[in-house]
TrEMBL record:
Residue stretches making up the Response regulatory domain: 4-122
Highest taxon of the lineage: Bacteria
HTH luxR-type domain sequence ranges: 151-216
Keyword DNA-binding (UniProt): yes
Keyword set, alphabetical order: DNA-binding, Phosphoprotein, Transcription, Transcription regulation
Source organism per UniProt: Streptomyces huasconensis
Modified residues (4-aspartylphosphate): 55
Name recorded for this polypeptide: Response regulator transcription factor
Length: 223
């Protein structure tokens, strides 16, 4: 079945461009469009998309609040949110990730990256390109822990190997890359990631990455 995508952006020309790119793919179907967060909520309820391509700056309701309501506690629908960002207006992106977004993509990304991001998010993975993630978190490092704060109690529930895996997730590595780094199978990595999410009460890898930075386990700029 095709991946059902809802386009949410207050600029009609951008929505048209995204639609043209995505509808050229046999495994992706654009099922609707919305010009703001309130319309997005209505469309999500009516259309049940798999992925919502979400702008942040919009009238009436911004992308952060819309993301929170689409993916927040008590929501059991299939929709995953992929946030669109520009680096001169992305002070809300970290908030969108906290709200439950499955990743973010630059608005000027090449067409093939947009298509790949939709597929990655639809498959349950996080869109966390390491270079973009580090640039974003480095930019907002003043608002994140310095690494000198006490480690949260929840972090002590993880095994040493699970902590290693969490650090690599925070760097944006895929399961395959983590497996190669730790010399274990990809299945083992998936198991460790699942344990980390369960023990920390997190929704997905994106929230795990944000947790790693906010807890001081990983510091902005660290390799």
């Amino acid at each position: 079945m095709a991946i059902r995508v809802l386009l949410v952006d207050d600029q009609p020309l951008l929505r048209t461009g995204f639609r043209m790119i995505l509808e050229a793919e046999q495994d992706i179907a654009v099922v609707g469009e919305a010009g703001d967060g309130l319309q997005a909520l209505d469309q999500v309820r009516a259309l049940q998309p798999d992925v919502v391509l979400m702008d942040i700056r919009m009238p009436r309701m911004d992308g952060v609040e819309a993301t929170r309501q689409i993916t927040g506690p008590g929501r059991d629908g299939p929709a995953k949110v992929l946030v669109l960002t520009t680096f001169d207006l992305d002070e809300y992106v970290v908030e969108a990730l906290r709200a439950g977004a499955s990743g973010f993509l630059l608005k000027d990304a090449p067409a093939n990256e947009l298509v790949q991001a939709i597929r990655v998010v639809a498959g349950g993975e996080a869109m966390l390109a390491p270079s973009i993630t580090r640039r974003l978190l480095d930019k907002y490092s003043a608002h994140l822990p310095s690494g000198e704060e006490p480690v949260p109690d929840t972090l002590h529930t993880l095994t040493d190997r699970e902590v290693e895996v969490l650090k690599l997730v925070a760097r944006g590595l895929s399961n395959a890359e983590i497996a190669a780094d730790l010399f274990v199978s990809e299945t083992t990595v998936k198991t460790h990631v699942g344990h980390v999410l369960t023990k920390l009460g997190l929704r997905d890898r994106v929230q795990a990455a944000v947790y790693a930075y906010e807890s001081g386990l990983v510091r902005p700029g660290a390799q």
